[in-house]
Design goal:
Blueprint: E1 2-7, H1 13-21, E2 25-30, E3 35-37, E4 42-44, H2 47-54, E5 59-60, H3 69-78, E6 82-86, H4 94-97, E7 104-108, H5 120-126, E8 131-138, E9 148-155, H6 162-182, H7 216-225, E10 233-236, E11 239-249, E12 262-266, E13 269-273, E14 279-287, E15 293-294, H8 295-302
Helix pairs in contact: 1-6, 5-7
Length: about 300
């Protein structure tokens, strides 16, 4: 099958690899423009572009695909059988969606209609879900509302973070995509129940700021959900501290204190008072402009004592 592949991050790579392994042909990769990274702001290609260059697959990187007529002309020249979309990052216009023989399919990292949107993995973890999954569905003009082709449920491991869960879902999604392509002529489409829809909006860096007034289990989920991006942080002595690892301790009855206050420093980490009479143990953190370290080592170097506060 002649395929146009739309994708950008590393999570899209297993799908592109499976397509090639199954002897389908990726005629063109459409991906996000190179972005400035690092202190030098050097333009760097996304993982999908790197893959395409390595495989000698033509690449096109429109700034805004809805405003770029050249994309449609390229697709008309290729006459693809199918568009495959995996974490591309832009809204695709209907003129492109419906051009191929089999239209366009999207690999989405949730069990639709739950968690429509840009950040389904992160929001599932943040909300404490026990399971999520993959949905391969037909694109239409509305966000993640097309007919479902295939779905597969995936359990969420107790201490899993977004990076680990996304990597597992990417592999599951790739397998489900290949099954979808092989059965696309005979799969029975299933309409989504829009009344059951939930949403996973795009995250910003500031979403990672800890609110110590929340209970400790929520904060633990936030750290897992936002690893590696946008990451979770707090302020201590007016400097930003990233919190990489920790655990909530329920059923605590901390002494008279306020949210964010350090209760105890011990080898296992730094205990911080949270909302609803709970305590969060910071185990690993990263001070501003420094490498990540164990929280106890940080406490020794900074001579941190109970009564000080995280903001």
């Amino acid at each position: 099958m002649r395929i146009i592949f739309f994708g950008s991050p590393a999570a899209a790579l297993p799908s592109s690899e499976k397509i090639l392994d199954a002897s389908h042909s990726i005629e063109l990769v459409i991906t996000q423009p190179d972005k400035p990274t690092g202190r030098g702001k050097k333009l760097m290609p996304c993982p999908v572009k790197k893959m395409a260059v390595d495989q000698d697959i033509p690449v096109y990187q429109p700034e805004r695909i809805r405003k770029d007529p050249a994309v449609l002309e390229k697709l008309k020249e290729i006459q693809p059988d199918l568009n495959v979309v995996v974490a591309y990052g832009q809204i695709i216009p209907s003129s492109i969606i419906y051009l191929p023989k089999y239209n366009s399919v999207n690999v989405h990292f949730s069990l639709l209609p739950h968690y429509r949107g840009a950040s389904p993995v992160q929001w599932a973890l943040l909300n404490g879900e026990k399971k999520t999954g993959i949905t391969v569905f037909e694109l239409n003009e509305k966000m993640d509302e097309g007919d479902i082709l295939l779905q597969e449920e995936v359990s969420i491991e107790p201490e899993e973070n977004a990076a680990g869960l996304e990597a597992r879902l990417a592999q599951t999604g790739a397998e489900l995509l290949i099954k979808t392509i092989s059965e696309i002529d005979r799969i029975k489409r299933q309409k989504q129940d829009h009344s059951q829809a939930t949403y996973a909006p795009k995250l910003s860096k500031e979403d990672g700021m800890i609110d110590w007034g929340k209970d400790a289990i929520h904060i633990e989920r936030q750290i897992r959900a936002f690893a590696p991006w946008p990451s979770t942080f707090a302020f201590f002595r007016e400097k930003r501290i990233k919190i990489h690892k920790g655990k909530g301790m329920e059923n605590q009855d901390p002494p008279s204190s306020s949210p964010g206050e350090i209760l105890e420093v011990r080898k296992e980490g730094i205990e911080v008072r949270c909302g609803e009479h709970s305590v969060f143990l910071i185990e690993r953190l990263q001070p501003e402009n420094r490498n990540a370290m164990e929280a106890y080592a940080f406490s020794l170097g900074g001579r941190i004592k109970p009564g000080e506060k995280f903001a």
